[in-house]
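Example record

The entry below shows one chain as it appears in the dataset: sequence first, then C-alpha cells.
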Amino acid sequence: QKATRKRRSDRKHAIYELFCEVTGESYIGVTVVSGTALRSVRGRFNRHLSRANTESKDWKLCESLRKYGREGFTPYLLEVVRGKAEAHARERELTKLMNPVLNTL
C-alpha cells in the first residue's frame, strides 16, 4: 500500500504581469512555479493565449490577446512568493497598487 503524501502548502508561486506593448495596458496574475519561475510564467502566458483563441470569453485580457496576439505582449515575472494563500494575497495587493486595466474584477 502506497503512503499518501501530504499536499505541499508552501509551493512557490510566480506573480506576473502581461504587458501590452501597443496599448500600455497590463494584466496581473499568479501561477504555480514548476521548474524556473520565468518558464512557469511563459507557460501560463501560452495558456492564456490558447484560451483566448479557443474560447469566446469577453474578458478584457482575452479580447486584447485576440486583437494584438503574442507579439503585442511581454510577460514579466514580478515576484516569487512561497505559499498559495500568501501569493494570492500579494497578487491582490499588486492589483490594487498597479491597477491593471486587463484584469476583470
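Notes for this example: The first strand starts at residue 12 and ends at 20. Strands lie at 12-20, 26-32, 73-82.
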